[in-house]
């Protein structure tokens, strides 16, 4: 019980923060040519469904990590749309 | 019970396939300049822990979707390392 929570929370933190370096790179360099727009859109949709799944299953690591990842990827999407045409 | 399985499996499929467009884009264009290496490494580590979490919790949608995502991101990592210095 304790081990599974530690694994779940650690996994959640890592997958949540994994997109942060990508987001910071885009903000810093203002180029998104090598990024895939379908990836971002499918990812946001999938992550949102994971949040829903976590709510139904009442599993906090799943809810928080995916909700955070949704927010990061919404920022990534907004920067993508802003820098894409430049 | 049925609804949560549908949501979990759909969420799993979407987050699993989300990195495929990115992988195909990298293979096609052979450039990875705008991709973040820390993102890929942290993501693979986090996804692997999710597989472990899914095994402990015995939740198949979590196991399969994250295992698939680990494989896709290992390919992405190998292409990143191959194209980065070019």
Automatic annotation (TrEMBL), chains A, B:
Keywords: Membrane, Transmembrane, Transmembrane helix. It holds the Pfam family MtN3_slv. The chain crosses the membrane at residues 6-24, 36-56, 62-81. It comes from the Bacteria. InterPro entries: SemiSWEET, SWEET_rpt. This is SemiSWEET transporter.
